[in-house]
Amino acid sequence: MEIKGIIISGMGKGTYFMSQEIYIEQFQEKLHFKPYVGTLNIKLEKNLRNPLIDISKEKFGLVKGKGKFGDVKFIKALLNHDTVGALVFPAKTGHTEDVLEFISNKNLRDSLKLKDGDVVSITIE
């Protein structure tokens, strides 16, 4: 499955949450990389139904939260056909359903020279 979207700026909260040991350790164990502290926010095209609804729940992993930190569902994915990472779905989020958050082991804006308005693709097996 391939999903296209547009890079948008986030609220800055992904950096805070992705820097918490409770998440770092579990993502490292389950995804086999230490996630960069931050998420890449991708807005789906207008009026596009979120295609992730059709994916079997068994394909999603779960990172357990603790205390004020909620659980995070995730699914492995590729950004632009070659950057390994995952889409994350925090139980507590301020994003609408049409915004996806992608994590990787590097700062994607810098390494891929991405900016707001750039079109990207996400591939999920």
Amino-to-carboxy terminus distance: 6 Å
Give the oligomeric state of the chains in this entry, treating copies of one chain as homo and distinct chains as hetero. single chain
Low-confidence stretches: none
Number of strands: 7
Structural shape:
globular
In CATH, the architecture is: Beta Barrel
Approximately what portion of the residues adopt beta-strand conformation? Answer: 25-35%
CATH level-3 fold name? Elongation Factor Tu (Ef-tu), domain 3
The overall number of domains is 1
Specify the CATH homologous superfamily. Answer: Riboflavin kinase-like
Helical percent range?
A: 10-25%
CATH class: Mainly Beta
Q: State Rg.
A: 13 Å
Structure description:
- The chain is 17% helix and 33% strand.
- The chain has helices spanning 13-18, 21-31, 108-111, and strands at residues 2-8, 40-44, 61-63, 72-79, 83-90, 99-103, 119-123.
- A six-stranded antiparallel beta barrel has the order 1-2-6-5-4-7.
- The protein starts with a strand and ends with a strand.
- The mean pLDDT is 87.
Topology, please?
Elements: E1 2-8, H1 13-18, H2 21-31, E2 40-44, E3 61-63, E4 72-79, E5 83-90, E6 99-103, H3 108-111, E7 119-123
Antiparallel strand pairs: 1-2, 1-7, 2-6, 3-4, 4-5, 4-7, 5-6
Offer a quick outline of the entry.
This protein is of the alpha+beta class and 125 residues long.
